[in-house]
Amino acid sequence: MKRLSPRTTRALKALHLVGVTVWVSGVVCTGAVVLALSQQASQEGMLALLSLAELADYLLIIPGATACYLLGTVYGLFTAWGFVRHRWVAAKWVLYNIACIPAMVLALPTVKAMRQLVLLNGAAAPSVPGFQEKLVLLGALSGYILVIATAIALVSVYKPFRKKKNTETAK
């Protein structure tokens, strides 16, 4: 199998860092929207914040997460890291999927459902059954993703599952 040159691998690493930064920034933005929504009393303010959360999903989270996924695939196929050669790489891949699959299934539909509740109920939406639960779900999802993203970063830095080299010197 063809391998990438060191220069191309460095460029791939830089793109990967940009993708991670964009993805995590979108998640932080969504978390901030959740905090602001819990304090918002007007319909217009709630709709503006929900639009911001939707934009963060479309412009930051989806492109950043997709870039990470695609770049991880390129890493696995065209570098010496491989998919199963190193257990720490496999751990990152599993953690990434654990973070992204629930987010893909729950985040955007939750934001859209909250928007509908605000459109139908106006400023009284926070007192409508289901609104607060959706707000908590969105906040918990943001926190969940940030915790897993932190774990992925720690695995990247410490590589805890790699085999130890024999450092014992001959006497």
Detailed description of the structure:
The chain is 77% helix and 0% strand. It is built from four helices and no strands. It is elongated.
What is the topology?
Layout lengths: L5 H32 L5 H36 L8 H35 L9 H28 L13
What attributes characterize this protein structure?
mainly alpha; 171 residues
Given as residue ranges, the uncertain stretches (5+ residues, pLDDT < 50) are none
Q: Strand-residue fraction?
A: under 5%
Which secondary-structure class do the elements indicate? mainly alpha
Number of strands: 0
**Integer-rounded radius of gyration:** 20 Å
Indicate the overall shape: elongated
Largest beta-sheet details: none
Question: Which bin fits the share of residues in helices?
Answer: over 70%
Q: Mean pLDDT across all residues, rounded? A: 91
Helices, by number, come to: 4
- Element order: H for helix, E for strand: HHHH
N- and C-termini, Cα separation? 41 Å
Give the gist of this structure.
With 171 residues, the chain is mainly α.
